[in-house]
Amino acid sequence: MQCRERCASLPELYRRDGLNHLGLHHRAARRTRKKLTRVARAIYEKPPNPAELAALGLLASDLDDAAVEIWPDNLHATNVLIAMFTQWRTGMGGPTGLDYAALPAVMRLSAVPRAEWPDTFESLRVMEAEAMKVMGEQNA
Q1: DSSP structural state of residue 71
Q2: Which of 35, 45, 74, 81 has the fewest beta carbons closer than 10 A?
Q3: 78 with 127: CB under 8 angstroms?
Q4: E strand or H helix at 11
Q5: What do you get for the CA distance between the two ends of the chain, in Å?
Q6: According to the model, what pLDDT value does residue 32 have?
Q7: 3-state helix, strand, coil in the chain (%, to 5)
Q8: Cα–Cα distance between 130 and 109 in angstroms, integer?
Q9: pLDDT tens digits for range 81-111
Q10: Is-contact 98 1, C-beta < 8 A?
Q11: Distance from chain centroid for Cα 127
Q12: pLDDT above 60: residue 2
């Protein structure tokens, strides 16, 4: 099969049962990833310390304490990410990703319905990538 034929058939494959051509769910791709990344950034980003604020001539009260909105669709993924807080795999350069071996137990204990595991996992991966970016920025 030529590349052109394969590429032309992909949209049909993405419409079948919410799965992509590899049989993986792609519902998280349709969601607003910005909300997921904001939540992950809010969880993992450290607030500036008083010395950093003083260097800029600011006080802690000057900062905006805007709450990050968590959509109901993202609540399970957010709870799982928080529960997986101690399950980071690390290497010489810092965190490399979450330990997925712990994920089934965490999903069960976080009361994620089994039917929602694929969506929750895809959302968790989006949040994991953002958390790794934040941790990388803080270590740089």
Answers
A1: -
A2: 45
A3: yes
A4: helix 3-15
A5: 46
A6: 64
A7: 60, 10, 30
A8: 24
A9: 999 999 999 988 888 999 999 999 999 999 9
A10: no
A11: 1
A12: no
